Structure formats: C-alpha cells, structure tokens
Amino acid sequence: MRAYLETLKSELALLKEILPADLTLSRLHWGGGTPTLMTGDMISELAGTVLDMIPMAKGGEFSVEIDPNEIDESRVKALAEAGMNRASIGVQDFDEEIQKVIGRIQSYELTKDAADMIRAHGIDSLNADILYGLPHQTDARIAESVLKLLTLSPSRVALYGYAHVPWLSLIHI
User: Most CB contacts within 10 A, which of 44, 63, 76, 104?
Assistant: First the structure.
C-alpha cells in the first residue's frame, strides 16, 4: 500500500504542474470502499497531497466510501481532519447466511459502531448502500435488512441490484 501511495503522490505532483493555479474542488470522492484500507497516517498524507494540489472550494463536499470492517478511530479522525463531510457505508445485507455466501461478514452492530464513530467526528451526512437480488435473499430478508438499516438514520440510502458475474466474483452459488 505504501508503494502505491508514493506512486500516486508522484503522479499527482505531475498533474499539479499543468493545472491552473486558481483551481478548486467543489466535490472530492474517494470510492470503492478501499480508502479505509489505508492507515490514518496514509489517509492524512494522501488527503494533504490532493488538497495541496487543488484546495476545496468553500462549501465543497468531500465524500468517502467506508467499509465498516476496515475503519477505526485513527482512520475516521484522519478523514474528518482532512475535511470529509460525507461518508458512505457499504452494507450489502445484514442476513448472516447471505453475508457468508457473498463473503462479506458485517454485523449490524459493527455497522452501527462505524456510523456512531463517524458521527462522533462531526460527519452528519451518512449514506448507506444495500443490495437486492443477492443469493438466498427473499423479500422478507431484504425487508428486515432495510428496516435495520433505517434504524441508523442514514441521510441517503442507495439500493443497488446485484448482478452475478462469476468470472469477476468470489461468490459461488
């Protein structure tokens, strides 16, 4: 991960040389759930590099996709200090059987703890992603997961349809 970060910083430095000096960001999004694989120090370093290159405009939005399995106090603190003001938590589904099949074990309690931690750092805009069409998912199971999700009071809920692509997926039905 460190080598990748150093490569990314070098590429951003090259980009900075050709960008207009007065450019600002109105929106910055770190996606894929993977930003929280970095340590808190690495998050701070990358955010500092990006925002040194192009600062956020007043009222800008810095959103980050967060995997509740890969978040802790130091990472949330680093993101909040970098200016993250919107978080998106991937849920998929809260049913344990479905989680085992899709290879994403993530309890409701873990997800709630992540949401609470994010909000404790002043991030009030919280999105949550949930999937439908997962293996073994029924109307009753998805309804139960949605009801649990709503107890977290997300600002937005994104409902995505699952498409099984066996050559790209670790899920084996």
Answer: 76
Q: What is the CATH number of the domain that holds 106?
A: 3.80.30.20
SS3 content of the chain, % helix, strand, coil (to 5): 45, 20, 30
Tokens of 64: 């980050």
User: Residue range 45-73: average pLDDT?
Assistant: 94
Can you list the alpha helix ranges (DSSP code H) found in the chain?
A: 2-18, 40-53, 73-82, 96-102, 108-120, 139-150
Which residue, among 169, 88, 85, has the nearest Cα to 133 in the 3D structure?
Answer: 169
Tally of domains in the chain: 1
Check: CB of residue 156 under 8 Å from CB of residue 128.
yes
Q: For 99-154, how does the pLDDT look when each residue is reduced to its tens digit (9 = 90+)?
A: 998 888 999 999 999 999 999 999 999 999 999 999 999 999 999 999 999 999 99
Which distant-in-sequence residues (6+ apart) come within 8 Å of 54 by Cβ?
16, 19, 23, 24, 25
